[in-house]
Amino acid sequence: MPSLVNERGELGKWLWERAESAMLDLDEIYNELVGQYDKFTAVFGKAPTHIDSHHHAHMLPQIYPLVEAFAQSKSIPLRIDRQAVDRQGIPLRCDRSTEWFDSGFYGEAISEALFLQVLDRADERGVGSVELMCHPAFLDKTLLESKYCYPRLAEVEVLTASGIKNAIAERGYRLGSFLDL
């Protein structure tokens, strides 16, 4: 994606600036989407469980229709940030997604209480399926250099806590994946 990366091949936050200036090469973005899908299926021998993007770039109003149409053509679920949809007036045609997406389980204050608050917010909205964004990991040299490092360990602790499955079930939810949609 020559028009979207810098000289080191890095995709940066200037993507949003280019989107606001109507300077996105949508053909290049579509070709990248197809290329990444093809590479994934070649390496893993099957389609991905769902489509999403780093920092939710696929939710940019110019990009979303391309990604949505591609996901539908491949019968693959799509991560949809419904708050972004409402904020940006994006029309939805995709029927394979969770009813709600929440990015609130993030940051320095990771705890079981925060995790359960996110579930409770979803329950208050009356949604039957919710995706909670999370970034659990054990640390390695690469992650130690990232900006979001140590909270990942806290996420692992919360997500593997002995009572968390019961707390999820008590709220009427069950653990699943995009394959369940």
UniProtKB/TrEMBL annotation:
| Superkingdom to which the source organism belongs | Bacteria
Question: Which UniProt keyword terms apply here?
Answer: Carbohydrate metabolism, Chitin degradation, Hydrolase, Magnesium, Metal-binding, Polysaccharide degradation
Q: Which cofactor does it need?
A: Mg(2+)
Mind listing the GO molecular function terms for this protein?
deacetylase activity; hydrolase activity; metal ion binding
UniProt keyword annotation of Transmembrane helix present: no
Gene3D superfamilies, per database record? Glycoside hydrolase/deacetylase
Which Pfam families does the record cross-reference, listed alphabetically?
A: YdjC
Which residue positions does the secretion signal occupy? Answer: none
Biological process terms in GO annotation: chitin catabolic process; diacetylchitobiose catabolic process; polysaccharide catabolic process
Query: Is this entry keyworded Metal-binding?
Result: yes
Per its record, how is this protein called by name?
A: Uncharacterized protein conserved in bacteria
